[in-house]
Amino acid sequence: MRLVSWWALISSACAPVVLVGGWTVAERLYGPGYDWWTDTISTLASDGAAGRWVMTAAVIGLGICHLITAIGLRAASLAGRLALAAGGVTAFVLAWSPEPPSGGSLRHGWVVAIGFTLLALWPVLAARGRPRESVPWTLRVPSAVAVTVLLALGAVWFVLALRHHGAAGLAERVLTTAQSLWPFVVVASCLRSTSRT
C-alpha cells in the first residue's frame, strides 16, 4: 500500500485554487463596497451578499479537498490526518453558519476559531518521529513545529487586525492561503520521497 495516494496530490493542489478563485469571483460580484485589505472573506459569504453562493461553494470545495487529502495522506500520523479532516468538516459548518450582514456572529466566530486551530495544529500532529532518512522533510518534527508556529502567528495577526480595525482582510488571506497550501506541500514531499526509494 502506498503511503500517499496519487489523487491526494490533485485534491491538495485544488484547495488553494478553489479558495483563492472563490474569493476572487465573489469579490467581483460583491461590487465596489468591498475592501479586500480590511474586509474579511466571511463578508463575501454573508447573508445577502451578491457573491454569497460563490464563496459558500468555495468553502465547501475547500472542505472536500481537505477531507480527500486527509484520506489519501497515509504517510502522516493518524492524529494529523484527523485534524486535517476535522478542519475540512469545519468548512462545511462554516458554509452553513454565515456571518450576518451586520457582522459579528458568535457562532460564526467560534466555527472560524475552531477551523483555524485545527488547521494550525495538523502539521505538528501529522509529524512522524521515525529516523530522519525515512520521513519526508514536511513530516519531520522540526519542520512541522515551525509551520504550526507560523500558522499560529498568522492567526494572532488576524485577530489583532480584527480588533484594531487593521488589515484583517489581508491577514486572513495570507493565513488561509498558507493553511490551504501546506497540505499540497506535504503531499508533494511525500510523493517525491516515495519516488526516490
Automatic annotation (TrEMBL):
Transmembrane helix is among the record's keywords: yes
Keywords: Membrane, Transmembrane, Transmembrane helix
Keyword Iron: no
InterPro entries: DUF998
Positions of transmembrane segments: 50-71, 78-96, 108-127, 139-162
Highest taxon above the source species: Bacteria
Name of the protein in its database record: DUF998 domain-containing protein
